[in-house]
Amino acid sequence: MRKKNNSKTVKQAVKPVEVKKEETVAQPVSEPKADAKADVKAEVEKAVEKTTEKVAEKAVEKTTEKAAEKAAEVKADVKDTVKKTTAKAAKAAKTAKEAKPAKKEPVKPEIIVQYQNSEVDTAAVEERVKAQFVAEGHKAGFIRKLNIYIKPEEYSAYYVINDKFSGRVDLF
Asked: How far apart are CA 11 and CA 77, in angstroms?
């Protein structure tokens, strides 16, 4: 069962319209081409931007990683250098502390004079000389130079202070 084709009715419903060639051809052809070019250009620019951003991000990440690695290496080197320098300084300070007391304390001998079953320490004689000098009215800090001459046969010691003042003290 086929339907009859009523082409007459269809043909009568459509009225032919006259269209100028210039308008019909010019408008549809030019607008789609311009829009298509602009769309393609915009898409290409977006794709280039995205690619550029991704490449830039990767480059920044790689550079940051390399810089972080180098910074870690430098930091480790600095720590080692500081430790070595600190250790050297500590050793030098320790050596200096140990060496200084030995230099500050010169060996002072104890001298004892013996004569006919009697003896006297020279440090005691020195103290007697200083005490007598102060008793005469002078200051103990005034002494810059002190010479002591011991004469056991006279049982006395003679002294000269600062090449100006002289005196005598008993030994025993």
From this structure: 95
Token duo for residue 131: 């005490």
Q: Contact 110/117 with Cβ under 8 angstroms?
A: no
Tokens in use for 40? Answer: 């393609």
Question: Distance (Å, rounded) from C-alpha 150 to C-alpha 165?
Answer: 17
Q: What is the pTM of this model?
A: 0.39
Rounded to whole angstroms, the Cα distance separating 169 from 172 reads 9
- Alpha-carbon span 90 to 170, nearest angstrom: 53
Strand order in the sheet with 146-151: 146-151, 156-161, 165-170
Arithmetic mean of pLDDT, 83-112: 76
